[in-house]
Amino acid sequence: MHTMTSSDTTDLLDPPPGGVLGGVAGRVDAVLERFLRARADELADLDPALEPVADAVTALVSAGGKRLRPAFVWWGYRAATGHTDPEVLKPAGAVELLHTFALIHDDIMDRSATRRGLPAVHTALRDHHIEAGLSGDPEWFGVGGGILAGDMVFVWADMLFEAARLEHRAMARARRVFGQLRAEVMAGQYLDLRLSGLPAASEADSLRVSLLKSGRYTVTRPLQMGAALGGTDPDLDRTLSTFGDAVGVAFQLRDDVLGLLGDPDTTGKGSLEDIREGKRTMLILHARDQATPAQREVLDRVVGNPDATRDDADAVRQIVVDTGAADHVEAHLTGLRADADRAVEHLSDPSRSALLELASVAVDRSA
Amino acid sequence: MHTMTSSDTTDLLDPPPGGVLGGVAGRVDAVLERFLRARADELADLDPALEPVADAVTALVSAGGKRLRPAFVWWGYRAATGHTDPEVLKPAGAVELLHTFALIHDDIMDRSATRRGLPAVHTALRDHHIEAGLSGDPEWFGVGGGILAGDMVFVWADMLFEAARLEHRAMARARRVFGQLRAEVMAGQYLDLRLSGLPAASEADSLRVSLLKSGRYTVTRPLQMGAALGGTDPDLDRTLSTFGDAVGVAFQLRDDVLGLLGDPDTTGKGSLEDIREGKRTMLILHARDQATPAQREVLDRVVGNPDATRDDADAVRQIVVDTGAADHVEAHLTGLRADADRAVEHLSDPSRSALLELASVAVDRSA
Fold it and tell me: Which residue of A95, A174, A179, B48 shows the fewest CB atoms closer than 10 Å?
C-alpha cells in the first residue's frame, strides 16, 4: 500500500494486538516504564529523600489511563508517512507525561483526594509527611509537594520528547505544536476554573473551554504533533484539525455526561464530584436555560455547593433529563461524530479506520 | 584579543553600560518585553478573559529582579566563544522566565501575599475574582489560577528558549543543560520544603539544598547553558562548574543572612518571614548546634512558628549572633569567594573580570 522504507516496521503495529489503542498503549507503557525508572534513579542519586516523589508519580502513571493521547500522536505520524517508527513512541509518551502533570495539578485545584483508584499525588505526599514524622502542616506539605511533583513531570515530558532520535527539522516542527498544546491546555484550564465562578456562563463559553482544554489538547494537537514528525502537508493538517476538534469536544461532552449520569462503579468517579465542583458543562447550562422556575431554583442551590447531598444530586440529574438537556447533548455528540467521520473520508487505510476506531473509543464509552 | 567573526558585536556589550549586569539586563528586558507582549496578545485572542493572567505575569517580570541568571548565560557564552551574539539573549531571557515561574509557585507554597512590592500573582488573581464578582472561594481561585499562571510561564520559558536562531547542535547541547537545570530546581525546592519539617536537619542537608535550588540553578547551569550554546570544552565546563557551585551556594547563604539579619527596608522582605516559615538555613542549624539549653529552647519555640512575634524574631537574631553562627557563615562565604576566584584565575579578560564582578553582585549585596 505504501513504499517500504528502512524505518518501516509495519509488522510491529499493523494490525496491532488489542485494537488500535491497545497496540500503541503497550509499547508506550514500556517506553514510559523505562524512562520513569531512569528518572527515579537520578532523583535517588540527588537525594534519597526524593524517592516519595518518584514513587507517587510512577504509581499514578502505572495505574493506567487509556493512553488515548499517545495513540493520536502515533496515528498522526502514520497518517502523514504511511509507515511507523518506534522513535515516535517517545513524543507519544511525552504527551502522556504531560497529561500526568495536568492530572497532578488538577487534583490539587479540585481538592480531589484520589485518582485512578489511588491516593492523588498530593494525598500520597501528605501521607508521607505524616509517616515520616515531619513537623508542620501535612496538608500544606502535600499541596506544595504536589505542585513540585507536577512541575517535575512537566520537565520529564520535555526530556522524553527530546529523547526521540528523529530528524532535527521534524523535531523542530513537532516542538512548535507541543508548545502550542501546552499553552492552550493551561489557558483552557484557567478558563474552566473561571467558568465555575461565572454567574452568566453560556453554552458557547462552555464549548470554548471544551475545545481548548480537551479538543485541542486530547486529539487535535497530538495528531498534528505526530503528523509534524512525519512531514509538512497543509491538507492533512486541516483534515486532522477538523477531525480532532470534533472528536476532542465530543470526548469532553461524553466525560461531562459520564460525570453526571454515569455509573460511579464504572467511571471510578464519585457522581457528586462534578456537581459539588460546580462545573458549568453544556449539560448543566442547557438544563438551566430550559428549566422551570422551580427547577432553576434547585440547580442554583445545588450546583457548586460543596455540601450537596446524594438526594440533591439525584434531583439535578432528574432535571437534566426532564429539561431535555441530556438528549440535547447526545444530539450534539451525534453531529460531532458525523463531522469527524466526514473529515477523514478521503484518508486511506489503515489510518482512516484507526482514526474512526479511536474516535469510538473516545466518544462511545461508559468509563 | 580574539578573531572577529560575523556575529561579533563587541561594541554592543564591551564595555557594557551599567556594569556587566546592567549591560545584559537592559537588553534582556527588551527581549522579554517584546516576547511577553506577543504572548499576551495570543492569550487575548484565545479569550479576553485570559488578560488578568497575562497582566499579573507581565507586572511581576517588569517589577524587576537583578537579571543575574541571564547575565550568567550571556557570560558563559562569552567565555566559551570570546564573542557576543544577540540571539543568546533569548535563552538568557528564558532562564529569567523560568525564574518567574518558580517565584509564582513559590509564593503559593510559602503563602507570601506580595512579591517585588506588588501583589503576588495568586494574590492578584484572588483580587480579580473579587472585582469581577465571580462566585466561589476567591482564595482558592487565586491558588488554582496562580498554579496555572506559573505553568503558563514555564511553557513560555521554553518557547523563548526555542526562538533563538542558533545552530541546531548548539541548541541541542544547551537544551540538555536547560532540562537538567529545571529538574534540579524542582528537586531542590522539594528538598527545601521537606527540610523545613525535618526534626534532625543538619548543616550538610541545608548545604545540599542550597547547592541544588540555588547554586546550580542560579549560577552553574546558566553559565554552562551559555557555554553550551558556544561550543564543547570539558576544561571550561569544569571551570564554570567549580566557580558556579561556589558562587551559587554563597548567593544562597547571603540570601539567608539578609533574610534573617538584613534591613527589611532594603531587602523588601519582612524579617519575620523566614523565621515563621521555619527555614532551616545554615545560620539557624549552626546556631542550634552551638546553643545553650535555654537558647535552644527559644529556637525550637520560635523557628517555624507562624505566630512568632517581632520580639521572638529579635531573640532569634541575638542567638544567631551570640552563638557565633553569623560569623561562621561569613567565614564560609569568604572561603567560597576564594574558591570562586581561584577557579577563574586562568580565564582571559573580559570574561574573567565579568565573572568576578557578577560574583560580587551575587554575594556582596545588601538587598
Answer: B48
**H-assigned helices in B63-137:** 68-81, 89-109, 121-131
Cβ <8 Å between A278 and B105: no
How wide is the angle at C-alpha B92 spanned by C-alphas B333 and B8, nearest 5°? Answer: 110
Size of interface A-B (CB pairs under 8 A): 147
Q: Tell me: the pLDDT tens digits for B72-115?
A: 999 999 999 999 999 999 999 999 999 999 999 999 988 888 88
> Do A189 and B148 make contact, defined as CB atoms within 8 angstroms?
yes
pLDDT, mean of each 10-residue run, chain A (367 residues):
39 49 86 97 94 95 91 96 94 97 93 89 95 92 95 96 96 96 94 89 91 94 98 95 97 92 71 82 94 95 91 94 96 96 94 93 85
Query: How far apart are the CA of B180 and the nearest CA of chain A, in angstroms?
Result: 9
Q: What is A1-166's CATH topology?
A: Farnesyl Diphosphate Synthase (1.10.600)
Exposure of B33 in the CB half-sphere (CA atoms within 13 A): 9
Does residue B38 carry a pLDDT above 90? yes
What is this model's ipTM?
0.89
Name which of A108, A141, A183 is nearest B147 (Cβ-Cβ).
A108
Question: A1-166 and A202-220+234-367: same fold?
Answer: yes
In this prediction, residue A267 carries a pLDDT of 66
Q: For B145, which of A47, A108, A190 is closest by C-beta distance?
A: A190
| Cβ contact, residue pair B133, A42, below 8 Å | no
CB contact under 8 A, B162 and A156: no
Does B183 contact A148 at a Cβ distance shorter than 8 Å?
no
Cell of A10: 509495519
Q: What number does CATH give the domain B1-6+14-166? A: 1.10.600.10
- Residue A119: what are its φ and ψ, rounded to 5°? -60, 135
CA distances from B137 to A74, A111, A351, B232 (A): 41, 13, 47, 52
- Domain spanning A202-220+234-367, CATH class: mainly alpha
